[in-house]
Amino acid sequence: MPGSASRFHPDGKCLSGSAMTTVSDRRTFAIISHPDAGKTTLTEKLLLAGGAIHLAGEVKARGQNRRARSDWMKIEQQRGISVTSSVMTFERQGITFNLLDTPGHEDFSEDTYRTLTAVDSAVMVIDAARGIEAQTRKLFEVCRMRSVPIITFINKVDREGRSPFELIDEVADALALDVCPMSWPVGMGGTFEGIYDLARNALHRPAADATGAFEGDSVPVGGLDDPDLDRLLSADAVNQLREEAELAVAGYSDFDPVAYRNGDLTPVYFGSALKEFGVEQLIDAIADFAPGPRPQPGEPRDVSPEEASVAGFVFKVQANMNPQHRDRVAFMRLCSGKFKRGMKLTQVGTGKVIAVHSPILFFARERELAEEAFPGDIIGIPNHGTLRVGDTLTEGEAIRFTGLPNFAPEILRRVRLADPTKTKQLRNALNDMAEEGIMQVFHPSIGSQWIVGVVGQLQLDVLISRLEAEYKVDAGFEASPWDTARWIAADDDKQLEEFKGLFRSALAEDRDGAPVFMAKDMWELNYVQGRHPAIRFSATKDRR
Ligand code: G4P
Questions:
Q1: What is the 494 CA–ligand 1 centroid distance (Å)?
Q2: How many structural domains are present in the chain?
Q3: Does residue 40's CB lie within 6 angstroms of at least one atom of ligand 1?
Q4: What is the model's pTM?
Q5: Is the shortest distance between the CB of 382 and ligand 1 below 6 Å?
Q6: Helix, strand, or coil (residue 173)
Q7: Is residue 41 within 6 Å of ligand 1 at its C-beta?
Q8: How confident is the model over 420-442, as pLDDT tens digits?
Q9: Same domain for 53 and 164?
């Protein structure tokens, strides 16, 4: 039987008031999904269940208010979407949840990927009719790189969907994960009668006259054989449930918290974000199973969240909050220590000391200035461009957090400059924005036009708009012959030089001078890779 009926802490400890520490009480997570799978709806319902908001629709409404207030990016207003991700915090039963938004539609960018370097776990939302889709898979790969544990939520069971077996098998096969169904839908769409909680042996039923939210009740039963189920469900539904759920319990893995936390197994929940069904179970699962702040890899040593001294890393920089002042907010994930407002932190690398007088502490309910933050929390640090993505901040110790990579761009464009006398401004602007981590800039070995690389289309529009607004550079982008890029390396310098000689027209350097191979498409990349086994082609590169 998968799971257990008790609320148990990942470390096996019971969650009871006084036993909690600030470290194990934090759940810093993100939702990964393909557009339209229901991420926004689920976010809203999680915030509602956590008491952070009171009205459905507030996630979007709040976003719009915020945009109107900050009035910062024409593009955001024109398109009515948020270019940058944010942090949403709510508390429930003594646990603080930090939900980091991963922008998903056209605003998919390197930020989306990098946000996943700042979380301790993720929820993967899948549309029951569509299964695993392209963007989910990409985001999953980033989670896998860091062994981020994943809880799967199969959404929209209130509509006709694919068979639960087919969906679970797809998760197992496509992502090469062990799967453990924690709940089972009793029918879907028109035949939907509820969800059976396999871990706690309870039947969640929608209210008989449900039109909007399903509300309904949760009835504990003695197990799948309990005759009460015959009374609670229609004859067809109960037969189907028993048959399917028994097969599922026998056929899939048991829930193993260690395998989950290592990123090898995903517990699978079914539900409907729209109808608020299965959402509480999901929050409970995050509270019960998801890890609190994990130790973070660093050099010369890893950093444990239990350490007293403050250390954190910047995973995102939001620029242009106010075009007049070139202000930026650096989002720092706190990895250890108790942060206090006014603290002086050292930017490792430059040695600069920054007094953090006005941190934006997202765990505060209304984003007012708060006095302290704990490992797992995100702190927004206003600055004038000093802080860059990948920076480590400490109380003085020279530690550098690793594993905050650049991700191989998926769109490459040549930069066309309208006024050639602005070459220097363009170079500075591109360098600045590359440093910020919102795009990458490559210098091809042949030709003089810079190439910019991004992972989402919207980033290109953002770049053009920022070049104009901030740097007064009139530039555009034109198609490049390449589609993707990989950093290249080899153990033997001679072999690397030979490779570079062969592919001079497809070579470039990134802003640090590291060699990059650009390919027309994945087919060409795979072909060249296959022919040159001595060369390592890397889709990520550590930033510093
Ligand atoms: P996203 O952020 O992942 O892109 O998805 P979003 O929540 O915006 O949901 C995409 C569409 O799917 C929305 O419908 C939303 O109402 C619907 N949806 C989300 N969860 C469920 C669910 O559990 N069941 C059903 N039946 N639908 C769900 P829309 O018509 O595109 O937008 P809207 O007009 O409803 O906002």
A1: 54
A2: 3
A3: yes
A4: 0.81
A5: no
A6: helix
A7: yes
A8: 888 889 988 888 888 777 789 99
A9: yes
